[in-house]
Each structure stands twice: as structure tokens, then as C-alpha cells.
Amino acid sequence: MAAPASRSALRALRSVPRPSQRAIRPIPRTCIPPRVRAFSVSVRRRDDASDLSEPGHDVRYTTDLYPELKRDSRFTELKQEHVDFFKKTLEDESAVIDGLSKDATDDLEPFNRDWMKKYRGHTKVVLKPKNVEEVSKVLKYCNDNMLAVVPQGGNSGLVGGSVPVFDEVVINLTRMNNIRSFDDVSGILVVDGGVIMENADNFLKEHGYVYPLDLGAKGSAQVGGNLAANAGGLRFLRYGSLHGNVLGIEAVLPDGTIMNDLSKLRKNNTGYDMKQLFIGGEGTIGIITGVSIQCPQRSKAVNVAYFGLESYEKVQKAFKEAKVQLGEILSAFELMDAESQKMVHSHTGNKRPIEGDHPFYCLIETSGSNGEHDNEKLETFLEHVMGEEIVADGVVAQDGTQMAELWRWREGITEAIGHHGGTYKYDLSIPIKDLYKVVEDTRERLESKQLIGEGKVAKAVIGFGHMGDGNVHLNIPVRQYDHEVEAAIEPWVYEWIQKKGGSISAEHGLGIAKAKYIGYQRDETMLKLMRQIKQLYDPKGIMMPYKYLEGVKEHTGAATS
Amino acid sequence: MAAPASRSALRALRSVPRPSQRAIRPIPRTCIPPRVRAFSVSVRRRDDASDLSEPGHDVRYTTDLYPELKRDSRFTELKQEHVDFFKKTLEDESAVIDGLSKDATDDLEPFNRDWMKKYRGHTKVVLKPKNVEEVSKVLKYCNDNMLAVVPQGGNSGLVGGSVPVFDEVVINLTRMNNIRSFDDVSGILVVDGGVIMENADNFLKEHGYVYPLDLGAKGSAQVGGNLAANAGGLRFLRYGSLHGNVLGIEAVLPDGTIMNDLSKLRKNNTGYDMKQLFIGGEGTIGIITGVSIQCPQRSKAVNVAYFGLESYEKVQKAFKEAKVQLGEILSAFELMDAESQKMVHSHTGNKRPIEGDHPFYCLIETSGSNGEHDNEKLETFLEHVMGEEIVADGVVAQDGTQMAELWRWREGITEAIGHHGGTYKYDLSIPIKDLYKVVEDTRERLESKQLIGEGKVAKAVIGFGHMGDGNVHLNIPVRQYDHEVEAAIEPWVYEWIQKKGGSISAEHGLGIAKAKYIGYQRDETMLKLMRQIKQLYDPKGIMMPYKYLEGVKEHTGAATS
């Protein structure tokens, strides 16, 4: 980074000419420079691939990871007549990957295993319908014939939801990739469920709008999958939840019913808001084939700053001040602890943005419609938090390259942690005042059990995440997966979360990874109500078996959540 | 208004000193000056009261308005033993208004009639439980004994949902008025369902936050009722839907089950989002007793501008430019047509903000964290829309008083229209490009049938509303309610909306007023899915009979929607 580190960086910013004479970073119509996102995607993929592509290191079947899982014998096994029906119905040769009539292991593999290469199923058939009618026909057929089903979008989920466990039929939405309509006055976009996020966003970019969700996996994740998973991601703080942004959906229920709730209206108070059950429903009650979504204006100006802070109390103060002073332009407030930044430093060897050690670091991003105004707001905020000693030290990026470099100290954490024998990962929501305490308590617990440190199994306890959303990622890199370490963390960490009124899955969902822990989150009444919904829509239980509310009670494999 | 009218007003603004030397309107921490809101509430109430308080002019019973409605004989009639149980259970003397043991007509009247004095029921008992356990006990008892129930909040609804039709038991939430918790770092507020919006907002104001919803009826409307009705209102454009802002609810189901989904987390992906069914559920499947809601920072600065425009195409252009140039600070974009402004002018006699006649007028509000920046943005926007001749003329308020005066040209429409024999009112969502066409087509239709104009029944066809949300209010003031006029509008207007993919109820809900028109909005599949939900939660059908999905097929009274 070209900017001098330490407090002088801030002084330098203050003494530059008034905004009108200063060169504002020319990042027209894009919220965050594309480099950052591209970087992020490639990092995560490379990380896991490098880990697992060594000779002889193949992906274990999910059924090996969870040996106590038994195939539900109510489900029919795939027969030739089923495959024939699918081929006849979907017409196009490429629409059915048939592993029954012939060996198609290699062709099926990308649909059987998830991108993290942690989960792997045994399906023999993948269907790629091209429109809602085809989805309806094949899904109804599966339901009539008791064939279990896994709907699949970009297969970029983090909890093993998007791949089969046994021989479930995969219904993949990739060929449903049309942008159906866009109203450039209202910003309302209607697309097929299989449209890739990045394609939707690129389309919107041409019209000055932005897709209200951003993820590292945007290059593969699909819009329908975003909804099914109720994805959170990087724009949540600014644009809020999909439950608010999605205006309508088209979905196919297990019995083949096409539910047309594809409203293009911001307001429509005419009956129960049925679509909401499908948002975060993880494909358990139907397949989302169409989406209508409200898209905001694309921001013309972006700023990124990086701080060191002396305590978690000061982090909270900084967050509060950011909300007050940056107000409507605050678009990210990310937290990284000292351990996480040490790990990035030792992994990348990059010069640290600020000198000296601090227990906490924050990354703040602003996005607004006027670069000069945003700079002024940021400057005033910086002056305040440094003057009040809320922040110990900080730097502000001067151009897109520096923004990408600063973001790397946040987004590179996963990559840096990945270069160990394994990592216990938890995606937690916690009321902000206790957000970091789970990290401290976990560290203390492993220390008291002498499981962490020089020569021990656990290498560190790391906390980082979306502070602005009350969402922390607790990561414990280990030399190798170890039952003693696992037993020290689980179910203790879920009990901890339960006591604090937090969530055991903030944004990743349940899938197969978290399914068995749902009892730590939801009481029996809520579970009963949820099961009623499942029973109502999917009475035969063909959708997403072994997952979501149907988690196994115990498993003995490594925690891979 | 002190500011000179016409184009010179804008020039005056441009030539004033730079923002830093200019006196910024001192409206600290409040989005819109209190006067405006207070004005709005009092106007609406006064309007209807003056109309109906004339001697001999009493409110008709809903059962007279809808003579075809028959009391459902499955429901038990209220007996002494029921009242005794309620009194014993709720303990407090004032918690039961008992019209069975004695004549309590006057005491019951405020709970039997709605604030518009358009709907009036026959209840003999009102219950005011003070906590969720009491709600649970009385609701379970009603369910066990087949007593029909109407949950009631502030009774400020617009579709007759909040008052009984026959002798339903009223469960009023007024005594559940505690603020349960507030986290001033995250802005998450948890309150009883019976907390009045304005009280919630005043509480938040002290902490620098704002309740993410604003309504004329904020002084009486309750938080639980806001959710049940899925209220939209004046902050929708900026803060979005309750489906996105509400983080959790506590609700009592008809069988007395207490559903605790009162999450205080921004993110929680652990199962179906059950609470969403209750948002906009209009009390048909349970009673909302607690609410957790994400509240945004309160804006420090507010601006209001008022424009005249020559065509609806230019209104659309102005809206698009406002979104681009005002971006994150745009908080309202309201549309008023020439007829609406003529009516306000002739009713109030006030000098018009700008000279000359224009077919359309818009009111724009900005709310932001920095007054100087907001002024500059607004100035640039004004320069652009006037330079490009998108806007023909405009003024900008210089202080809170002027803001209130400008808002009055929007908010005073209802009052102005009210001073006629009656008004046919429709609250419609329409894709923005066709938003105003419904007004033009209605006008043309009444003209072609010679029902409008000098000496005719219909006096005008007026369009105004929340342009930014695609929500128009179509109003037809008449000398008296008239079957010929009504027959010309209905169901024609609903068919029109159906063809355009609009909504027959944007923000007011169904209640009893719109219930019978749901078929114009939702297809049989959606209705079936919705009825399944009703059946699941309220199998005996005790909640809100005769309303929502249970609308009568036809009615012969005046359209009072």
C-alpha cells in the first residue's frame, strides 16, 4: 500500500486540498471495484481446491461423514422407466445427465459434490429443465413416483444443502437463465431462478442499478438459490434482507402446482405473503423458478477505511459513531481480530496497513451518490473517532487498488486460515454487545483444557465478520480434525449461543451441516409449526430429505459447518 | 408561503451563499417537523367527525351496509358464564367491558366503530389483557367455546378490519404497552404489540433512532397492528417493508399456543420464517403480542421541494433523476394531480406554492445526516431538472414551517375531498409507467357515461399518492353515493388493475372492504394456498370472520374502500 501507515496517513488526508480540487477515485457506477470481488471468489475457490486436489485426496461421501444416516426406504430407486420419462419430457439431449443407462460418473460429479468439496452424494441423474412447465412436470413425476429430489442452483452453498446425500434426483436450474423484465423507473427486475447473480448485476449495472445482494460466490450463485438460502452477504447492512427486497416469486410445489406470486409491485396487501416461506426454505417445500426483486440505484462513489482499536468496547463505539456520522452512506462495517490479521500477514507477507499491534481491526466502507460529500463525511468521522481516541490508528484508501488491498485484509482471512490441517467454523448471530465474547470464551475454554497453543492441536481461535449485522464467524484452525477439540466446542458453543439469544446459523442456513443443531435455536412449538408447513407443502417428504428440519440426532464426523 | 413563487424561487436558492454560511433549517433529529404530522392526524379525524356528527346522522351498522351478510351460526352467543370467565381470568376490573350483564353501549361504542365511522359492529364484550399469558388464556377459551374474535390495536385501519361485524369478542391490546428492550448499538427495539407507534418513535428519538414507519394515524396506531396490516406509509420509500425490518414476533395462535419467534438478530437462517405470515395476516391466524424491529438512525437534516410538471412522462423522468441524483437521501416522492391541488386550493384558500396551472405536481423530501450535503445535492438536482425542462416550476422550503406548508398540499387532499357528499376511494398499486393511466381512464369512462361535471353526480376524478412506491390513491368525490356511478367504476376498476398486474390493495389491506374483490388479485391456486394457511392455524375459523379471505361475493352498499 502506497499510503504511509500510522496516524500520519490520516493527517495527510486532512491536509489535502478541498474535495472539489482533489481527484476523486474514478469508480463510476460500481459499488466496489470489480477487482475486489473477483479476488475474493478466486481466493476461496483456490483455497479449497489446493487443499483437496492432492493425489489420493478425494472427497469423502457424505454418507461416510455421517455413517449413522440411512437411506429412507420409502423412496423409490431410480429405474430405466424414470429416466425415459425425464428424457421424453425435457426433450433436449443435454437436459438429462443419465448415470443409470451408462457410466456418467465424471459428468455427474460436479452435481454430486459441493464447491467446498466437503459433501458428496450418490445421484445417478441430473435434470436441467428449461422452463417452469418442465420443472412442474418432472417434479410432479418424482412426487407421484416417490423419487426424492434435491433442487440445485449454483451449488455454492456452505452447509451441504445443494448436493444429494444418497441417490436423490438433482433438478438443476442452470438452463433457466432468462432476464424476464426490468423497469428502469422503479428498479424492479424479474428473472428466472437460474440466472447467475453476477449476470443479473452486470445487466443492472448498464441501467445504473445494483443487485441488492453481494457474495464472494456471485459468479456461480443463482438468484433462486440466493432466495432459497436467504443469503446475507456484503450488502446486507445497506440494502437489508431479501425478505424485504423480494417482491414476488414463481415456485413449483412438489405436486407440480405452479405458484404464481410474481408480483412486480412494491406494495401488495392482498392475503398472506406466501413467498416468504420459500425465502430461507432451502428448497424443502418447492423450487423457486422466477424472482421479482426491487433493486436500488448503483452508488457512484465508494470509500474504504481500515482501523486499529484497543478494545471491543471501542469497536462498538466506532460502529455507533459510524452509523450516526456516515448515516445513509455506510455500506459495510467489518470486524477482524488481531489473530485474524496476524494470520493474513503471515500467509500473504503483505505489509500491514497500519503499524503496531491492536486487539481489533475494522474495515468501513461507504457508498454514496456524491464522492465529495462522502469524503467529507468520512473525514469528519475520522477526525472524531481519532480525536476521541475511539480508534487508535487508521488509513483510508486513495484509489480502487488500495480499496482492494484493504478489503483483502478482511476477505483474505478464509484463505489464510485454510492453509492448516482443518478448521472448525461457526457462522453465528449474537446481540452486538456479546458478539466477540464467544471468541474470547472459546479461546479460554480451549486454553483451560490445554488444547491450544504451541504443539497442541488447535492453533488459534479467530473471530471476524459482519459487525454491522451482528454476525461473527468463529474459526478454529487445527493441525488436524480432532475429537477432543470437537467435543470441547460442541455442543458447548451452541449452548452458549442459545443462552445469549443468538443464532447458530446467521446466513449460511441449515442444510445438512446444521440440521441436527436446530433444537438449540428453536423451541418445540416453533419446530412443530415449521413441521406443519413442511407437511402441508410436501406431504410425501420428497424434497431435500435428511436436511433442514430432518437432521440426524448425532454424527461422529468432523464439524464442517 | 413567504418564498416567492415561480422560477425565481429556484434562482433565489441558487444565488444564496454557500451552504456553510447559510442557515440550515434547525430540525435536529427529526425526520419531518412534528407540526406536519400533527396537522395530518387532526385533519383526517376532524374531516370525518364533522361529516358525521350532525344530529340524526349516526353510523350505520356494517350489517346494514352489507345486508347479505349473515351471522355464522356455528359461533356461540355470548353468555354470562363466558363473561364470568373473562373477568376472573383478567382480574383487573377495567380489563373487561361487559355489555351483557348491564347496558354498556357507550363504553363499547369506541370499540364497535372504526375511526372513519364507516363500520360498526354489535359486540357486547371487550377484553383488554395485559400480557401474553392473558391473551393466551382468553383466546384459548374463545376457541374452545366457539366464540368469534376480533383482535384490535389502535383501531386506525382503513378497511373495517379492526371492528366486529356481529357480536365477535374484541381482544384489545391497549394495555400491552411496554417497551421491552432497546439496543442502542444495533438499533433493535422490542416492544409489546400494543405500544402506540408515536410512543415507540418518541422513545427512539431520545436515542437518535427512528421507527421505520410513519403514518398519519401514528398517535393511535399500535405496533402490533402495524404488522398485522403490513402498513406502508410515508417512510416506505426510504426504509422499505416491514417484511424486511421486523426481526421477530411473539404471537398467540387461536388455540392459545404462544409462538415465541422474538429474535433480536438481524440474521437468523434457522428454518421457515413463520413470522412473515402474521405480517399482513390482518389478525386472521393469531394475535401479535410482541415485536422486535430494526430501527434506522434518525436523519438530522430534512428538505422539502414542490414542483409543477407538464406531463406524466416528465413526472417519471423527474422520479428517475431524483433516484440518481438524490440517491440515498431521497425519502419521499409524492404525486398530486391538478384536480387534487385545485381542490386543496379551493378548500383552504391558501396561496398556491407556484403560479400557473400544471397537470401534475410532485413533492420531494430528502432526509440525511448532513444538511449542507443534502442542500447541495438538492440544488444540483433542481438545476438539472429545471435546465432540462423536466420540471416546469418549483419551490424549496426554507424552514420547518414552509416544509409543513408544502406537505399540506399533499396531506390536505383527503380533507379537501372530504367536504363533499361522499367519495369513492381506491388504494392501488400499479407498475409506475401506468400509474396515472387508471385516473385518466376512470375520468374518461365517467365522462363517456355523462356522470361527471357540472350538475352531475361525480364532481371530479383525482389521483395522488406515493409515486416512489408505485402506489396511487384514486378518489372520486360525489355529491352523494350513487349506484350508477358505483356500477360504472366497479368491478371495471378491479378488472383494469388485474390486466395491468397491479394490486387492488396496496397498503390498506383487505379487511371487510376489499375481501370480496380478492379474486381480481389472486388466482385460485394462490387462494387455495392461503386458505390452507388459515385452516392450519385457525381450523375452527374463530378469528376475524367475514373478512380477509372470507369476503361475501357481492354487496349492494356504497363502496367505502
TrEMBL record, chains A, B:
<feature type="region of interest" description="Disordered">
    <location>
        <begin position="1"/>
        <end position="24"/>
    </location>
</feature>
<dbReference type="InterPro" id="IPR016167">
    <property type="entry name" value="FAD-bd_PCMH_sub1"/>
</dbReference>
<keyword id="KW-0285">Flavoprotein</keyword>
<dbReference type="Pfam" id="PF02913">
    <property type="entry name" value="FAD-oxidase_C"/>
</dbReference>
<dbReference type="InterPro" id="IPR016171">
    <property type="entry name" value="Vanillyl_alc_oxidase_C-sub2"/>
</dbReference>
<dbReference type="Pfam" id="PF01565">
    <property type="entry name" value="FAD_binding_4"/>
</dbReference>
<keyword id="KW-0274">FAD</keyword>
<comment type="similarity">
    <text>Belongs to the FAD-binding oxidoreductase/transferase type 4 family.</text>
</comment>
<dbReference type="InterPro" id="IPR004113">
    <property type="entry name" value="FAD-bd_oxidored_4_C"/>
</dbReference>
<dbReference type="InterPro" id="IPR006094">
    <property type="entry name" value="Oxid_FAD_bind_N"/>
</dbReference>
<dbReference type="InterPro" id="IPR036318">
    <property type="entry name" value="FAD-bd_PCMH-like_sf"/>
</dbReference>
<dbReference type="InterPro" id="IPR016169">
    <property type="entry name" value="FAD-bd_PCMH_sub2"/>
</dbReference>
<dbReference type="InterPro" id="IPR016164">
    <property type="entry name" value="FAD-linked_Oxase-like_C"/>
</dbReference>
<dbReference type="GO" id="GO:0016491">
    <property type="term" value="F:oxidoreductase activity"/>
</dbReference>
<dbReference type="InterPro" id="IPR016166">
    <property type="entry name" value="FAD-bd_PCMH"/>
</dbReference>
<feature type="domain" description="FAD-binding PCMH-type">
    <location>
        <begin position="119"/>
        <end position="298"/>
    </location>
</feature>
<keyword id="KW-0560">Oxidoreductase</keyword>
<protein>
    <submittedName>
        <fullName>D-lactate ferricytochrome c oxidoreductase</fullName>
        <ecNumber>1.1.99.40</ecNumber>
    </submittedName>
</protein>
<dbReference type="InterPro" id="IPR051264">
    <property type="entry name" value="FAD-oxidored/transferase_4"/>
</dbReference>
